[in-house]
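Quiz preparation item.
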């Protein structure tokens, strides 16, 4: 029912400069692919895609969030079974939010998961200025990143399927100028796109609450609130 994305964004977060890569065990000359998702989101299909990306680009390093000893050991074993050097898989500890965003800015690209997308994971990547590509699945959980990208004015970052996603990721991995262009677009979006406008989101949510309250007053009960095409939040 909200006009842009269901997920609010806190525009009071400061813009942070990237940490030094060495502080996080990342080579300075690597192509860093970040995927700070909870381990349960790493489906076999997604993991196979990430392995193909790493095999196709020798400079690529996969930067994941450490889960627990069992999942970490499983990921390391499967990584090495694919013929990839252990040092190209970097598992990162959890950090407080602002420290996490500062380290996340070290990444070259953010990878998404399926059928459960990144939610705040995707939002954090966009905040940190890291290019993100995704594709829209069928259910809500598989469409969150697409929703965020649309609201950020980056609808062309939403691919048709996994095959297109893989090809476009490979292109970005091999084209530094294209990656810089995406970063510049993301920086511009921070200044003007609806996703990053906290007041706009608050007004839209407030409108829904006021409409619901008015309906209860008038009819004595609440019915589904259907947003009208092109409806915009009013100023309160």
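Solution:
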């Amino acid at each position: 029912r909200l006009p842009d994305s269901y997920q609010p964004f806190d525009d009071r977060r400061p813009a942070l400069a990237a940490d030094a890569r060495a502080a996080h065990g990342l080579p300075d000359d690597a192509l860093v692919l970040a995927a700070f998702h909870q381990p349960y989101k790493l489906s076999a299909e997604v993991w196979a895609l990430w392995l193909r990306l790493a095999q196709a680009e020798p400079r690529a390093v996969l930067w994941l969030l450490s889960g627990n000893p069992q999942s970490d050991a499983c990921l390391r074993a499967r990584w090495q079974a694919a013929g990839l050097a252990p040092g190209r898989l970097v598992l990162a500890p959890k950090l407080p939010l602002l420290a996490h965003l500062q380290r996340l800015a070290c990444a070259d690209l953010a990878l998404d998961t399926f059928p459960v997308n990144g939610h705040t994971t995707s939002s954090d990547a966009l905040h940190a200025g890291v290019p993100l590509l995704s594709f829209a699945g069928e259910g809500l959980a598989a469409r969150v990143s697409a929703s965020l990208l649309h609201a950020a004015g980056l609808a062309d970052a939403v691919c048709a399927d996994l095959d297109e996603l893989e090809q476009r990721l490979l292109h970005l991995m091999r084209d530094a100028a294209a990656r810089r262009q995406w970063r510049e677009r993301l920086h511009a979006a921070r200044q003007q796109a609806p996703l990053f406008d906290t007041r706009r989101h608050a007004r839209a949510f407030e409108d829904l609450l006021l409409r619901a309250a008015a309906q209860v007053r008038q009819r004595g009960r609440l019915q589904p609130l259907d947003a009208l095409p092109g409806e915009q939040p009013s100023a309160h």
